[in-house]
Design goal:
The chain is α+β, with helices and mostly antiparallel strands and 284 residues long. Helices cover 54% and strands 18% of the residues. The chain contains 7 helices and 8 strands. The strands form 2 sheets. The protein has a 5-stranded antiparallel sheet.
Amino acid sequence: MSNIDINLDQFYSLSGWQRLAEMGMSFGTNLLAALAIFLIGKWITTHLVILMKAALIRAKVDRTLVSFLGNVANIGLLILIIIAALGKLGIPTTSVTALVGGAGLAVALSLKDQLSNFAAGALIILFRPFKVGDFIKVNGFEGFVSEIKMVQTALITPDNEEVILPNSVVMSNSIVNRSSDPLCRAQVVVGVDYACDLKAAKAAVLKAATEHPLCVQTAGREAVAHVTNLGDSAIEITLWAWTNEANLGAFRFGLNEQVVENLRAAKINIPFPQRDVHIIGQQA
């Protein structure tokens, strides 16, 4: 009986080692396959992202958006490759997918404001309502666009102050782009005396623009002077004249000064606001 027991023990022991070896061989094969899936998939992903970026650059898409889309595509494809590799190892991918989805939802909820800035930044880069160097007005701020990022836009104001605006704020407000056209219109409003020669006053005001070296006159964009209001104390004359966008500030300041000098030279009075009061005395 003892010999039989020993043989049975050896049989069961040998069978257990065989099963362990088979499990080891199976796991090793799956591990190698998972590594192959990951390495080959990563290589394919890298080259696909490179091709995608090259295609976007050839389509003249902004490089900031190209980089952002490339990173998103790279991360998304790597997640799919990792899930496929884990599935080859026998790990249930349903739970992994649910975990990734839950984590993604949690991140999305916690970063919803930043994600809205990302989306707005993509729209700015894609549709280009303005570009770096443009002078814009948005949300009560105005200045030159110095930088456009995926989450924020930077402006340099005329006072040389930097204003950082979230892209969601930029896209949710009206945008005035002064640089969309190379020419800008300057306006000067001046009041003249009711007793003056109105034609001479208009000519003096208009002369301030037509003789200014920064004034630009093209078809449909000539300098003009019109009577725009009959005020309580003065006749208001409005001067409209055009100049290059880069010269608008200097041109406007020069017009104000030249209009005053021309009116003084023509001996046309610029009246102060005044009111005549008539007092009727009561007889005793």
